[in-house]
Amino acid sequence: MVLKDEINNVRENLIMKKNVAMIDATGVYYRDLNSLLRSLDGNGIEKIEIRNVYGQRYIGTDLDGHIKIDVYGTPGNDLGAFMRGANITVHGNVQDGCGNTMDHGQIVVHGRAGDLVGHSMRGGKIFIRDDAGYRVGIHMKEYLGKRPFIVIGGTAQDFLGEYMAGGVLVVLGINMKERRHNARFVGTGMHGGTMYIRGEVRHLGEEVEVTDLKEDDYRLLGSLVDEFCSYYGLDAEKILESKFSKLSPVSSRPYGGLYAY
Amino acid sequence: MKSYVIPEYIVERDQDRCIRCKVCVNQCSYDTHYYDEEDDIILSRNENCVNCQRCATFCPTQAITIRENPNHYRSNANWTQEAIAGIKKQAETGGVVLTGMGCDKPNLTYWDRLLLNASQVTNPSIDPLREPMELRTYIGSKPDSLELDMEESGGVMLKTKLAPQLRLETPIMFSAMSYGSISLNVHKSLARAASEVGTFYNTGEGGLDKSLYKYGDHVIVQVASGRFGVHPEYLNAGAAIEIKIGQGAKPGIGGHLPGEKVSEEISETRMIPLGTDALSPAPQHDIYSIEDLRQLIYALKEATDYTKPVFVKIAAVHNSAAIASGIVRAGADAVVLDGVRGGTGAAPRIIRDNVGIPIEVALAAVDQRLRDERIRNQASVIAAGGIKSSADVLKAIALGADAVYIATAALVSLGCTVCQKCYTGKCPWGIATTDLWLTKRINPDIGAKRLVGLLRGWSLEIMEMMGGMGINAIESVRGNRLLLRGVGLSDTELKILGVRMAGE
Questions:
Q1: Closest Cα of chain A to B341: distance in Å?
Q2: How many CB atoms lie within 10 A of CB B130?
């Protein structure tokens, strides 16, 4: 296998076993780490295990293939930004901007997430086992075959689904102390897409309408919850027993009447 | 409700000249002219006319004259026609008054109060027709110093690894105008002209149509708050990436491309559903600080393997100099400044005309600040917003710009008459519209030719002016404020512009 010269200084951190690459990220600068990942991508590698990750940013950005990446530790901001196909599992928490403007692929987090999960995401799936921060799914959008999905196991903070223009955002509220999600301004500026929320929502944006789920909704929600539970060994049936509400935009043109022509 | 707004224009038709050919009826997209079959006469609805001059230009017998309505309110220096009409319109709709193009007020321009120098006796001027003249410009981060390797053969090799650069054959690029705000045929014209001349065209935030990927070497792809059409292929398709923070016509606010303009083609390129409003939030929601900006700059660099310069575009505002310093320190390869007179496809008029500062002062302040901090080499500075002649280009470069962006001037070369109605989506010149009936009015072959003509003309004029000053390379003009003198400016204005009074 030919690796680029630029990764010479981290060559010692790489161990290859057949189609699996193992990287010790201790003290490795993010640019070197990502350069190494790019170098491995498309080289017949099926899986990359990165251990001792401490805040390195942009892991998974600019990877073409459907490579599987296991991250141990805490990856830095913008994990999988602009990502188009990789399948990342994080054994730890993720920081801000996870899946930023993601196009395709999957991120499964065994832990919590910071702010801005799936900002402007257009495709792929993100699963967060525990809670997430502010502005989750902000400006998610969908087009034709591209439809993004985010499932948050715990709760999320203010501006959940703000400006949402497409895709599906599920918040399961598992292990919440109260039955009520604390987030305010949920779905402010929403003009597309769907949110399914288990538990009460404290404060909604003006552009959101709350309805009960129909058969189609339960089918979609069921498949997402099943998938979520398969990653974390949870009981999907038990979660689905509780009441969910469906949040949809009142209009696909919330600001149509704002102007004097 | 009866509207109290009186028509702005009166359409006058010389019925003796009119041959009833109905060209005006067909050309007007605002339904101003109509044919009355019974009386065999063409009549006009004055209230619909926007004075775009499309009908008058295409009338084969010059039968049409558009006049400002002489029937206006009593003259008043404070209560202008615009102020009174605006209030009436708002009272009737309860909405924000929209407009298009750049600020149309006279008091916000400095170009015309800055004058260029010329050689007389003590140093010879140069004739660009017979002597070499260099307009080539490189946009990108320049190193603090160069390391060279001397070869045994006597040759010299550059050891320093240079940051990616854009090579411009003339220091003029086409500024961001999204596909959606303007038509695909206009994008095609811009892309072809940029390729032919050796400069760049900016996609704006509406994505890049697949048919234009082949012009990628001459395309700057923009990433704005809506992230429309932004995906790895798009980022890698262009020669550079521009992060749009703000726009001179509407600093601090986002944009709403109305659902009517989101046609099938627009929806495909932006990757959003048909007919929904395309909402660009006011901030980029992953950028709330200079540190966050750095994060996005490097996310884009990572996404393109550090092969493309990343620009950051801001509107010129009060503290632009400090912000620009932060942008350079955040790792941008170029800072784009868009002044208060910068154009737009749609903006609230109140914001367009009252928010932001003129490009001249912002540019001078930014250039000075970056020099004072000794980081000017780390990024190029690109000036935009209200550049309407080759003299403005040269003055901008003398004030410290590496290159300029033009947009309105480019559209004017294609036919635009600056009627300021871009936001209606019904541009009769086929420019600011996505209506396929209207977009056919721009033929990309002719459009590209007109744009090339504009750039060639301006470039020749710039060379003439440079030659007149005895300068044969644009590098020698850059930031050389001794080439400028001010007239009618206060001491403070001269100080901020870094320019002496004429006669001094």
A1: 21
A2: 8
